[in-house]
Amino acid sequence: MSGPGDGWTVAHYLAARLEQLGITHLFGVPGNHLGPFLSTMRATTGVQWVGTPTEMGGGYAADAYARVHGIGAVAVTYGVGAFSLLNTIGGAYVEEIPVVAINACPTFEQWQNFRAVGLLTSHMSPRFESNLEVYRQVTVDAQVLSNAALAPLQIDGALTACLSERRPVYLEVMEDVWSTPCPAPVGELAPRERPVTKANEAMLKRAVDAAVALVAARMPPILWGGEEIDRFDLHAEFARLVDATGIPFCTTIGGKSILSENHPRFHGVYNGKASNPDVRRIFKEVAHSRIGLGAWTTSKNLGGEMALGEDWIVAAHGGVSVGSRYFPDVRLGAFIDALREKLVARWGQEGLAADYYAAPVAPLADELVTDAEPPASRAEFLRSLTDTEAPSVALDYDSFFERIGAFLCDAEQGHGVDATTPYVVVSDAGFALLGSQDVRMPERRSYFAQNAWLAIGWSMGAVTGIKCAVPDRRPLVFVGDGSFQETVQELSTHARLKQDSVIFVLNNEDFYGIEQMLVHPCYYAGHEDEEGFYNLLHPWSYARLADVFATPSTPVTGFAVATHGELNEVLRVIADEAHPANRGPILVQVRLPRKSYPRAIGYAVKDCG
Ligand SMILES: Cc1ncc(C[n+]2csc(CCOP(=O)(O)OP(=O)(O)O)c2C)c(N)n1
């Protein structure tokens, strides 16, 4: 790599490495220690600085950017900035997202003064390595760069770890080190996978043999594709397994849209008791063995169910469970390929093909029974997800998301697994997540949620990063009012970047609905006295916030809707490319009754009487 006229500095080195990794945007909040780096980055690379109002917003943006691009970066200043950013990097660590967290800290001289006489400068804590220590908890490599001669090795090591372990890394850089000369970058950085050993191969074979034996003993099987399919880019391997064996598949919410949900074998999102009842019936009753692939058994993937049984196979977190047997250190991609080969060898090409919706299934014993009949076919099940209501009907969670489902169907271009959508869905935690789980996404990787760490407010920052990574897609964001209040400022970043995000604020009368549901669900069944005072939010005029962030060059348009007719009007505006509102973000305050909740969580109120 050729260097700048007056030689390489650490700032230039790091900026060049970020650019080489294809990073187009660096998010964050500056401070004086970071300034020199940002100036050099701007002068010497095409990486664009995206200043966000808060570190949380910057961290979530980098996280979501990395979900699409494969690696993202965020930069902040020491102490005040780094501690604010920590939650977002904690989330990326848990969710296995490769994010580079850059923390610019005081000069080497200032550290010497601190060490010698205890002199603290701004943002320093008397705990000597406090920033480094906390970031060690949430990264796979954490480095302090105090010596420019070593910096290239430290930077390359950390970035390589980030790519290889697919988790965050931390680079703390002393202010004076940015402008200190250092050796030039050599070559390109690439992930370094752990070598596959003979022992790994033997363990893989044992795991696959055990899995196939379990399937044979408990026919028929169903697949449950999860988040690691996306994180490890195993979409093609997963698709080959489905297509070759014909086994129907569900996904977790975290794995939603790992393949097109138009795929003929797609049978819905399985989320324990919070699943659509039809999905749960086929997953639990029609199928007799369940094969989780890259699926995390977190609470939001198992909605209300606690234990897996002897009829489960789960390959995730670097190992495989088959019933109560565990096979450590088995790579997911290798497992999927080997499983496919064995299943096809035993049952033949598409030998396990089926439509589990074809046969009627009675409601499960613990199911919340409604008047609706189970669908008679998979096609009917999919259609049931996009019902529409008359214009004067008031919105509730389910009818809102059914209408959104229909809107997405209308926007779909092309057919089947090759269909595309102009939209991506970004969902926050709470009822937004449960409500959106069954919105059918026709295109791979078109649905995003942080469903394991579940930091409320994630979506508002995330959407900034997603839009930077896939500018040709329009994000539809679903966020509860409480979650929105956490990171509302990020609307400013959307407007600043002229992003055309559509933010649906699910305004259930300013209430932490899911918290109420988790602690005192019977409030929803008429037990008024159980309302949690701590779940009440200050009411905001959400739609009017649009004016705050609009500028003469970027419109930000606010709407408030309470009925299907009003929602239809807004959806017409969104779909009309020529409408001036579409030159910037749109904020839709969706007024929902406080007592409304998605039927997915209905199991929680079942026994309230
Ligand atoms: C950063 C963070 N703080 C607190 C929580 C705990 N929490 C989980 S859901 C929730 C309420 C979300 O309320 P809202 O966005 O209004 O959505 P609703 O539950 O009404 O759907 C809270 C406070 C969290 N998950 N993340």
3D structure, described in words:
With 609 residues, this protein is α/β, with parallel strands linked by helices. The chain contains 22 helices and 19 strands. The strands form three sheets. It has a seven-stranded mixed beta sheet with strand order 9-8-7-10-11-12-13, sandwiched between helices. It has a six-stranded parallel beta sheet with strand order 2-1-3-4-6-5, sandwiched between helices. Helix 9 (198-217) packs across helix 13 (332-347) and helix 11 (235-245) packs parallel to helix 13. The radius of gyration is 25 Å and the shape is globular. The model has no long low-confidence stretch (mean pLDDT 94). It binds thiamine diphosphate. The site of thiamine diphosphate has 17 residues, from helix 16, helix 18 and helix 20.
Summarize the structure.
With 609 residues, this protein is an alpha/beta fold.
Q: What's the arrangement of secondary structure elements?
A:
Elements lengths: L9 H11 L4 E4 L6 H10 L3 E4 L3 H15 L2 E6 L2 H16 L3 E7 L2 H10 L12 H7 L4 E5 L5 H15 L3 E6 H4 L19 H20 L3 E5 L1 H5 L3 H11 L3 E3 L14 E4 L7 H10 L2 E5 L18 E5 L2 E4 L2 E4 L3 H16 L30 H7 L12 H15 L11 E5 L3 H6 L10 E3 L8 H12 L4 E7 H7 L2 H7 L5 E6 L5 H7 L25 H5 L7 E5 L2 H12 L10 E6 L18
Parallel strand pairs: 1-2, 1-3, 3-4, 4-6, 5-6, 7-8, 7-10, 8-9, 10-11, 14-15, 14-16, 16-17, 17-19, 18-19
Antiparallel strand pairs: 11-12, 12-13
The structure holds thiamine diphosphate.
Thiamine diphosphate (TPP) binds next to helix 16, helix 18 and helix 20.
